[in-house]
Amino acid sequence: MLDIQSHVSLKSYNTFGFDAKARYWVEIDTDAQLQTLFQLTEFLAVPKLILGGGSNLLFTRDFEGLVIKMSIQGIEVLREDASHVFVKAGAGVNWHQLVLFCVQNGYAGIENLSLIPGTTGAAPMQNIGAYGVEIEQVFDHLEAVDIRTGETRIFNHAECRFGYRESVFKHEAKGQYIISNVTFRLNKQPVFHIDYGAIRETLATMGISEDKLSIKAISDAVIRIRRSKLPNPAEIGNAGSFFKNPEISKDQFETLKTEYPAMPGFPTGDLTMKVPAGWLIEQCGWKGKHVGNAGVHSKQALVLVNHGGATGSEILSLASKVQQSVEDKFGIRLNPEVNIV
Ligand SMILES: Cc1cc2nc3c(=O)[nH]c(=O)nc-3n(C[C@H](O)[C@H](O)[C@H](O)COP(=O)(O)OP(=O)(O)OC[C@H]3O[C@@H](n4cnc5c(N)ncnc54)[C@H](O)[C@@H]3O)c2cc1C
């Protein structure tokens, strides 16, 4: 049985806390329910929005269609070989709960991605990443339902076309598939990534020396860092990093570096550099600024926040002001990471 509701407030279903409404709403708990949805012919032509934890969405308006809240649960070890364990999780599994399950069982590969908000089904959408790791490094395949036909299809790694905060689901396949389950290929032998951000220092503060390193220690360190640095959406509405870190040519980087010697950058290829968007925004004087009820976070300039009562359009208007000033000062165009509805 499917419980299709009308005029549902999305306020508690998006981490910005915007009070947008869904014309129709359905929550999907099982693969079978997802199939049933496609037998409801009256909804076939209705526009659809797939919702996970709402932690990467910016609603600028009500959604005049059907919001499909993905809540399929279940974590299952499918099989293992000498080096890997294959773990399948339902789209609605809370991402951090999956990380904890893997850490507790000694399955390595996603410990650096601890405490990223949202669901497992949304994780491949933007190839979630943090602290030097992206899910594509342990991704095996996913199951998705074609929104036009209701048919299930498997996407392997190559077919997902992962990139930095990118996948095929944000481009050619945008809005066309409902991801129902994701399978990861985790490592029995951990490869520790501790050179990114403050992981090394935090481990030292925790009294963990290199010979005591474990995936649990890394997960704990990442949790500590994230709790101290990132605003908790339960306290202040936000969707994490609003913009992606821009990639520019090495030539442009060198030219800018003569004018801004402190500008940080990381090589992403022989000819390209990635520049932290937060640094660029901070240099334009935006850190901690309020514009009405919208603002730029005081500790992390990459995060736009709803101080209470802001609308999605106010956040979007602030975002375009930020974009313009970064472009005017550095000649670099910032692109949003957040999905705008
Ligand atoms: C405080 C904070 C910190 C964050 N830190 C990070 C970080 O370190 N790294 C990072 O990569 N991200 C980060 N994010 C962004 C966010 O957590 C991730 O993008 C997460 O994967 C979004 O999951 P969700 O379930 O909330 O997706 P939603 O916001 O519900 O949806 C995001 C997009 O995916 C689509 N979608 C959702 N579920 C499905 C599905 N089952 N099938 C098809 N499409 C679907 C939606 O339609 C939408 O386009 C952060 C966000 C916050 C609020």
Q: How would you characterize the overall build of this protein?
A:
Helix content is 23%, strand content 27%. By secondary structure, the protein is an alpha+beta fold. It has 3 domains: 5-70, 2-Layer Sandwich (Uridine Diphospho-n-acetylenolpyruvylglucosamine Reductase, domain 2), CATH 3.30.43; 75-187, Uridine Diphospho-n-acetylenolpyruvylglucosamine Reductase, domain 3, CATH 3.30.465.10; 237-340, Alpha-Beta Complex (Uridine Diphospho-n-acetylenolpyruvylglucosamine Reductase, domain 1), CATH 3.90.78. The strands form 6 sheets. A 5-stranded antiparallel β-sheet has the order 6-7-12-10-11. A 4-stranded mixed β-sheet has the order 1-2-5-3. The longest helix is centred in the C-terminal third of the chain and has 19 residues, at 312-330. Bound molecules: flavin-adenine dinucleotide. Flavin-adenine dinucleotide binds at residues 15, 49-57, 70, 91, 116-119, 121-123, 125-126, 128-130, 177-179, 230, 233, 238-240, 339. Pfam families: FAD_binding_4, MurB_C. Its EC number is 1.3.1.98. Cell wall formation. The active site is at residues 165, 241, 337.
Q: Could you please say which CATH topology of the largest domain applies here?
A: Uridine Diphospho-n-acetylenolpyruvylglucosamine Reductase, domain 3
Q: Count the helices. How many?
A: 8
Sketch the major β-sheet.
5 strands, antiparallel
Provide the β-strand percentage band. Answer: 25-35%
Q: How big is the Rg?
A: 21 Å
| Small-molecule components bound | flavin-adenine dinucleotide
CATH architecture field of the largest domain: 2-Layer Sandwich
Broad CATH class of the largest domain: Alpha Beta
Mean pLDDT: 95
* Largest sheet: spatial strand order: 6-7-12-10-11
How many strands in all? Answer: 20
Counting structural domains, the number is: 3
Helix/strand order: EEHEEEEEHEEEEHEHHEEHEEHEEEHE
Uncertain segments: none
Class by alpha and beta content: alpha+beta
GO cellular component, one term: cytosol
GO molecular function, one term: FAD binding
Function: Cell wall formation.
Catalytic activity: UDP-N-acetyl-alpha-D-muramate + NADP(+) = UDP-N-acetyl-3-O-(1-carboxyvinyl)-alpha-D-glucosamine + NADPH + H(+)
